[in-house]
Request: fold
Amino acid sequence: DVAGNVATFTGGAATDNFALMNLVNMEEDDAADVAISFTAHDGVFSLGYDGGENVFGLSATGNLGTNIMSVSPTGLLTTAVGLTATTGPITATAGDITSTLGHITATAGNITATAGNITSTAGNITATAGNITSTVGNLVANDGVLTVTDDVAGNVATFTGGDATDNNALISLVNTENHDDADVAISFTAHDN
Reply:
């Protein structure tokens, strides 16, 4: 009970490229995890290797398995309810940005997939003060809403075609329903009308 660190591990020249603390679980069971548990203010988080899922996980419990965030050995980042960047961009240079149950939100940055898709299966794709860009991929909201709101002296959205878009529509609206009321329309609203 001192005003300082309870334990400090300090390496020297010989510890270069070696971990200062090495945690090893010798069990061969799939659920044999290696984790550190953090407890404070009546809350618990666990961080470490989730053997059952073969990921590096973060859990809001005393053990791993019900992870709120994880990273696979190949670098796939998975979150439980969504991904939010408050002051920076969300960028995937060679993969997809995907949310199956939450929102993809950047409040002061861009959402960019250079060579992949941006997909939200059951949530929204929102860039409050930035751009949503998919350079070589698709922008998909399967069961959510794509909202673009801007207040500048210019276009809110611009669709520019290239050589490959010859004889193709820049915007295609499709309603797959067979119901008689299944319309395909664009709504124009201005001056309270």
Q: What stands out?
A: The mean pLDDT is 86.
